[in-house]
Amino acid sequence: MSLHIVDLPPELLFQILRHLPGPDIGRVCQTCRKLREIGSVDSLWQIKCRIEYKYAVEGGLENSSYYKIYSKVLHKYGKSVGLWRRDRKVYGGLVWIRYDKEGIVGSELLAPLSPNVKESMRRFDLFNISLTSEDEVKVTCTAEVNGHPCSVKVKPKKGTCKYTCLDTSNHLYGDKKIDLKNDSSLIEVLNIWLDNERGSDGDNDMYHFTYYGRGMDFLKNIHTYKLKPLLIQPPVQDKDVPLQPGLFKGTYSAHGIEIMNAEYSQNFNTLTLTKITGDPNVPATKVSVKVDLLRPMVLTANQQESIDNLDGVDTAHIEPGTKLEPQPFVFPRNCSERSGFNPPKTCLFRYHAQGQIAGHGFRSPTWSPGHFVVFDEDTFGMIWLQLESFSLYSRVMEKYDFSKLAQEHELTR
Ligand SMILES: [Zn+2]
């Protein structure tokens, strides 16, 4: 006597189905009524949502079913969830797409205003994806109060995502409607933008508007965001590192605050800061700072008095792996610093480093010597010796669900 698969008890069929990829469950369940019944149990789709898309709702769904969420929202848009960098010339940008109850929300994350590098990131919502009461999926641009249609396209194999607003004519800036065809409306928006984006150090000018954030989008009527995945290095557990990798905000003098991705090389000899947002000199995606972890230093307070002293300092060779104690830190006399930084008397580590500098438009880029100074797990600085200036970096503390992309990063390493 032969046993057909549908003769198995329902609990066992359930277990078989839960190990199939979601789209295959649909196909298998078309074959007979018994399988169709088991395949329509919502707890099966709850499991699929969690395993395939890490989607879970605390307290359960209110208005929909996991099957609908899976088949209408996650199957098409689930791979958009995570952190992305915006593929925009010069400025770049950071976009965060996340689950929100029974849908998906996309936001641009902006650095805090200069010079307050320790403040939280600012968030500007771009779109949301949700189900209507008729179970249709709706993608809405949230740049105006009532919202209007836009499109989100994810290509998981290429690792890209594209967001396009289909109607910029009703976009608001603050509570001001932007009329792109009207010069005086644009000037008004420019003035509001300058008021909003001018940090308390008064730093800002016209090129900030044209190069940075949404200013350029307004003026040039840009309504497409091309996104590339942003890979954050997972926490380092089996090695002594001066600090954990991740996203940092850093002061870049007149350019304001820029966002950096700090990660270690495979052999842990180098720590690099790559720009997620950039400026007209060194644009996004370029490396800003390379720290030579094989060249730590221990300096006395006297050696740090001035930039000239630091520049010519003769540092003893320290064997890699030597356990270093906290050491004196003195802010050099002739070094400029704009963040109102209150320097501590000691630091944890200090290394030789190189910072990338260039003319406007990334002309003639060169590496310039510097000192990389770690104050604590979430704060470090870079003394640019030739520029006689100091950048302060502070960790992005918000928990932007890095887990999904971090895991993918691990797989591709
Ligand atoms: Zn729009």
Short description:
With 413 residues, this protein is α+β, with helices and mostly antiparallel strands. It contains ten helices and 20 strands. The longest helix has 15 residues.
If you had to describe this structure to a student in words, what would you say it looks like?
The chain has 413 residues and is α+β, with helices and mostly antiparallel strands. It has 4 domains: 5-77, Monooxygenase; 79-168 and 401-408, no CATH class; 178-220, no CATH class; 241-399, no CATH class. The chain has 10 helices and 20 strands. It has helices at residues 10-18, 22-29, 33-39, 42-53, 66-77, 183-197, 206-211, 213-220, 307-311, 403-412, and strands at residues 82-86, 94-100, 103-110, 122-131, 137-141, 148-155, 160-165, 172-173, 176-177, 224-229, 246-251, 257-264, 270-275, 287-296, 327-328, 346-347, 349-359, 363-376, 379-384, 389-395. An 8-stranded antiparallel beta barrel has the order 1-2-3-4-5-6-7-10. An 8-stranded antiparallel barrel has the order 11-12-13-14-17-18-19-20. The longest helix is centred in the middle third of the chain and has 15 residues, at 183-197. The chain is flat and about 90 Å long. Mean pLDDT is 86; it is low at 409-413. Bound molecules: zinc ion. Zinc ion binds next to strand 6.
